[in-house]
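Not sure how to ask, but would you mind making up any protein sequence you like and the tokens describing how it folds?
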Amino acid sequence: MDASQVINALLKASPDVAALVGTNIYALIAAQGIAPPYLVYKEVDAVLQPVIDCKPPQLWQARIQVTAVGADYPTVKAILVAASKACNYQRGLIAGVTVSSIVKETAGSDVFDVGLQSFEQSFDLMVLYFDTGS
């Protein structure tokens, strides 16, 4: 289990996210030919945290980027608000992973894709979680 599975579970469980993107939530890249709106999440990096006892479970900090894509700018902003609400400050057992904390860290720049005629913006979540090594 990893942090991206945690974010996937939180996004898919959110009625606010579902109201805006339906089931159009993808890992890494969106399905080919999908029209906006949708969400894409990906693990940017993960770092093993130093602890005294190196036995499992190991504490990891992962950066997960969440990108909203929409046909218009207000839709992208609404999706980002819903996704942030679904994930930010969550903790506990989520998707079988023991999560210490999830904190929204940075927001990316606004983007307009001329080829796709869509708007997008991302934000990063820092996910601190325990990996049992299973």
